[in-house]
# Entry
Amino acid sequence: MLGALPGDDAEGLRTAFRKAAKATHPDINPDNPDAALHFRELVRAYDILTDTEQRATYDQLLAIALLPPPATQTPA
# Structure
């Protein structure tokens, strides 16, 4: 959503957030009825990634989500 990379530091996150915020801000996109919602989602994502505890939880959940699915057994 932010366009940031998983390994980005605080400065990388801030840069990605500012770029995405400029592109999605409701004042810049007055004809887009979903702009306010997208902007709020963007701000929430930035808040999560810049908070140490929430970022750790996010990283754990991301690691789980990226695990390959378990192999299914076929009946004999």
